[in-house]
Amino acid sequence: MQTPLHHRSWFAVLSTVIAVIAIWYLAALWLNGQQLIKTYERKNQSWQLTDIVQQAYAVKRPMLPPPHQVVQEWVKTVFQTKPSSKRSLVFHTIVTLQSTLLGFALGTVLGILIAVGIVHNRTLESSFMPWVIASQTIPILAIAPIIVVVLGAMSITGIFPKAVIAMYLSFFPVTIGMVKGLRSADRLHMELMQTYFASSSQLFWKVRWYSAQPYLFASLKIAIASALVGAIVAELPTGSQGGLGARLLSGSYYGQTVQIWSALLMASLLGASLVFCVSVLEKLMLRKRGYQA
Amino acid sequence: MKSTLLTALSVLIVLVQVGASLTLSEGFMTAAPAWWLLLIFFVASATRLMNEMTRWLDAQPNANRLFKLVVPGLFAVVLLTIWQTLTRGYSVPSVLLPAPSDIVLALFNNGPVLWADFKQTFLKAVLAGYVIGCVSGFIVAQLAVKSRFLELGLVPLGNFVSAIPIVGIAPIMVMWFGFDWPSKAAVIVVMTFFPMFINTLTGLQSVDALHKDLMHTYAAKSAQKFTTTQLPQALPYIFNALKINATLALIGAIVAEFFGTPIVGMGFRISTEVGRMNMDMVWATIVVAALAGSISYGALALLERRLLFWHASVRNAQP
Fold it and tell me: In CATH, what number does A89-288 get?
């Protein structure tokens, strides 16, 4: 039996994307059109619907820039500007990427260490685990300015304070996933190792670490997306000169909506490609372990 | 006998250290480094106490659940005491890191201001955005579970959105909906929609085929099917989303306030007080935010336990 067209996934995804773009254009017409009408009325000029439609997609500081304007700006700032210039989006992306990756690496290491501690020490689990969970109910992003001030007073500046915030957001999924993963070791394997008189480090490296790998990668996908959010948000209150967050902030100060949207587009592309990279690694790892794709 | 004595001694040391950190005058660590000795003993005794408590609790599976809070509580006391001792003992400038006691003072002295911020950020923006976002995610998931087309189109979109930093739309929302709380609520709606949608959809799809067939043989109407099988089966997933969203919502509101607010709100308070170097006030606001976040998370977790007492995940968690 053949699947009907509207139940094929490429068709559904394609129509969703087209629908989103169509709604976007209509909304842009509506929002920018209202703005234009207001200007016309203020100047007491008469206007026609065709004028509005023509101009709504070419406003300099639109309420909602239509997709092609955003893409134009994106292409201009990515490909037609030197990457070393502050006007280049590549420059800002690299700044954000650095603190994201550093924070992600730190968060992963910290998350794994905490998980190992929790799995091996009952007291650590009962005293620390509730706080690991509670730490995520605290809107940590609020602490971002403080971390920057405190580290700045110790003359630590640059990407490190931002990476600390990215780390804070990304360690949690890793800890939770790893605790689950390290505990998921097959009981029979563990007992077999014990009959071999395996030391606890052998037990860890030969059984637990192996069984935790799939869990680790599932968590890493969440962690890297959170690290990016952390890095972007950390750039907001710190008054930093570079980075996608700084780009968003300066865009909102000067009403440069096209700039905001193109920074958002870049952030989405960055986020999606980071997650994609991790999932490629995951696939490779799973294949090595003999899973069928 | 010996171990009881040791435990009593540990309790004593903990109490002395807590008292000392609260009462001694500024800079006592610089004046007399011997206090380090007490601090080290304090950490050792507290560790011992936590070990004992954990062992005792593990031996008594029927102990009251409130007892389980003692160990993490003690852990928090240890951290706070070390913080208090070091900041007071070395008279760390409060611009850098205020002592916990200063934060508590700021909390009490600025009650009305903090309450106004809480009202603006939490009671208006967070609640409105959270309710709208979760309800609409739930409704769209209902539609998607009935239509394969919608499901195929929206799920990849949802996965894509989960990879992108949505808080970035905050400046746009501020531009559209103004400085006041509706713009923050709008950010929260967008942030909470997809987690709710994806989770509810997964939950609704997880319905046991046997249950479905059973209801079919009973000639159940679709509303009956929904309330008796679909909704209960989906509830754990829905609660999962509700809990995730509770924290997301607070983050969204505070971050959105960095982009412009009327002169009230927790995000506004944090960014202005950092500028004025009033760190104790910043910390006090964070304490309020942390309490709001943990209490709403805790309330949801309790509600989940109440409603889902029959579910495997809850039954196994309770000893």
Answer: 1.10.3720.10
A145 touches chain B (CB under 8 A): yes
Q: Which residues of B64-74 are buried (b: 16+ CB within 10 A; e: fewer)?
A: eeeebebbbeb
Q: What is the pTM of this model?
A: 0.81
Q: CB–CB of B53/B74 below 8 Å? A: yes
pLDDT band, very low/low/confident/very high, at B26 (cuts 50, 70, 90):
confident
Q: Which of A145, A228, A249 sits opposite B165 (nearest CB)?
A: A228
Give the separation between CA B64 and CA B318, rounded to whole angstroms: 11
So where are chain A's domains?
5-64, 89-288
Q: Which two tokens stand for residue B44?
A: 């050792």
Q: How far apart are CA A49 and CA B15, in angstroms?
A: 78
Domains of chain B: 2-91 (no CATH), 109-317 (1.10.3720.10)
State how far the Cα of A210 lies from the Cα of A202, in Å rounded to an integer: 12
What residue in A sits closest to B72 (Cα-Cα)?
Answer: A127
Task: Name the residue facing B164 among A131, A233, A268 (closest C-beta).
Answer: A268
Q: Å from B218 to nearest chain A CA?
A: 30
Distance CA B260, CA B267 (A): 9
User: Cβ of A7 and B50 within 8 Å?
Assistant: no
Q: Mean pLDDT across the stretch A13-29?
A: 84
